[in-house]
Design a protein that fits this description.
63% helix, single chain, Histone Acetyltransferase, Chain A, flat, mainly alpha
């Protein structure tokens, strides 16, 4: 999940819960096309993926834990950059 846009067929209520969807395929497309003019713009979309995952996986403790691990890695990368 979050590698590609979430389809309504897979998760019918996703768009009613998640107001601003984001996925890695979209991020990579934006990187390839030069749409990110700043590191902050790139990180904003990465943060949006993590934030959406936290909301989407609410109730699934394992996936919530994985999401927080990813968020921690993102934080470390942000500080190192």
């Amino acid at each position: 999940m979050f590698h590609f846009p979430v389809s309504e067929e897979e998760v019918p209520d996703y768009r009613s819960v998640i107001q601003k969807p984001m996925d890695m395929a979209t991020v990579l497309q934006r990187v390839d096309s030069g749409q990110y003019l700043t590191r902050a713009a790139f990180m904003k979309d990465i943060d949006l993926i993590v934030s959406n995952a936290k909301v989407h996986f609410l109730g699934n403790l394992f996936l919530i834990h994985v999401t927080y691990v990813v968020a921690s890695v993102v934080s470390v990368l942000r500080m190192a950059a």
